Request: fold
Amino acid sequence: METILNIIKKEFLQFRRDPKMFGIILVSPIIQLIFLGYAANFDVNIVHTTVYDMDRSEESRNLLNTFESSGYFSFDNYVNNYEDLQEDLETGETIVGIVIPNDYGDKINKRQPVKIQAIFDGSDGNTTSVAAGYVNAIIIEYSQKIFLEVQRKTGKKILSVNPLEAETRVWYNPELKTRNFMVPGIVGLLLMMITLILTSLAVVKEKEIGTLEQLIVTPIKSYQLIIGKLVPFAILGFVSVVIVLGAMTIIFNIHVRGSYFFLFVSSFIYILSTLGLGLFVSTISKTQQQAMMLAIFIVMLPMVYLSGFVFPIENMPKIIQIITYIIPLKYFMIIIRGIILKGIGFAELWQDGLILLLMGMIILYLSSLRFSKRLE
Amino acid sequence: MYSIEVNNLTKKFGKFISVNNISFKVKEGEIFGFLGANGAGKSTTIRMLCGILAPTSGDAIVGGYSVLKHPDEVKLNIGYMSQRFSLYNDLTVEENINFFAGVYGLKGKLLDDRKKWVLKIANLNNKENLLTGSLPGGIKQRLALGTAVIHKPKIVFLDEPTSGVDPISRRGFWELINDLSESGTTVFVTTHYLEEAEFCNNIILIDAGKLIAEGNPKDLKTNYLLNDIIEVECDNAVKAMELLEKENFVEETSIFGNNLHLIVNNFYKDKTQIKLLLSDKNNIRVNRVDKIVPTLEDVFIHLLDNKTND
Reply:
């Protein structure tokens, strides 16, 4: 025990001498939070639009007003031909062109069906489908308004276009903000960065400068060395989690709905895997550069892609979905989002927690075994 | 009394035999030189003696404990310092001393006494708050030795401790080694500097995992090299060497700086033979021809050359 404390103390003394370390621990959580909270945004707030109104009637102006007053559309350009419309879409100045035919007003007044055209730049599929959804919603609402008006004026019963309507309620993230989805995930990401990358670097650094060789000939046992080396990074990881949670509340006003206790317990369970993987990376790397590369490209990126942090696992092909079962971060994402956004706890999440715990113990055990062997 | 007894020690890595059945004994308190070319098996042997690497067969008793059965006790009783500087550069002198003292469980008065001793031998009195990385190489090396023996081990292993250190610091370092040995610590040292090997009480030489010579420096020179050594100082030493190699009175040749060393046999009568060949026949100016006492280098080159000729 004394030996382990001695090693932990040494690690912290070394942190103190390394200002970069403080940057990683204290500043990077905030920067990541701000980047991912503001920049990683799939929300479509403003649809930049080009208008080609061939009709220029009172009716067409009414329709366009409805679009603009919805608050989602900004009419950046008015054009008089298709060439100009096309140019706007090509340069990316706007992402949708609304074309109103020249007989629009006439047909509305004659109570005849009329079609308006919406042309989208589909290169960003996500934004496009959201924008198309807005356009549809507005058109449906507007045409219902016309029906009702006609009905009121003529007293005639006209079958509504959509007799059935689903009333949608979105729970947990009612504004459907990407931020609310991404920010809790950052906890998982940061814990991984600190425990995985920093651990492997710290171990390989000792290998590089030769102090590991020195430690091996001392009576220090390999389990003491492993614990002494891992505990400081677990502590740093928790410090940065606290920072992220605080910043999340202050900057983005996202509150933890579930229990903090369960959040920290599951974070601890999660870092068993990441510390283990960090140790593993250190056993297969000779230099710090190698460790960095391996940690990022072999471990971190696949974990990020396959964890559901950015891309929903349900949308992945079956075979990839199967691979995600061995990604510890996947389970942690479910847990952390559950606790922070849904306020659920042990009763709902124990299965994910158990899988994570077993996975962590296996990874850590195998890595420690490999590490001890390598010391010879 | 022996502090290290090595019996038929062997280490194989797959089919490769790194250390091949070597046996030797190291007396308590002596400076024991362990020599051999790179890749001869020195590091593997040291690792086995330190209890890090288990031998394939054979055993060694180090400080009274078998490396095979009690490697942990062996580790408690030895100090180790490698050619690479192995303290933490980003810790201060005192933090390094405290850490390694802590590893061996030193505390209280004992820790204070030993810390003072280490600072004294490293010439770092009142400089314990300096960052270790900022120290000059020679001082670092002394500090590393001090920390390696902070727990007063019975035996200390030094693996090429002076490589990359300037000649003045090297001499100072060897004085330190002498002091350690006089105070009763057994010093087991490997080096590539053969003039350093002359300071050792006893030496063994290994090649390709096998022990090929042992004894004190004086015995080595007389027992392993029976022929005379002639030193020739002349122009164009390379050309001269090529010519002399063909003579029947010359067994071996080697170049030492600007000079040639010849190992000669009974056909060698006197220096006129050499002068006749070089200056008269080939117009190479000969300044000096002397019979010399062989150096350890002569002996080892002779031994290793014979090995390769076999």
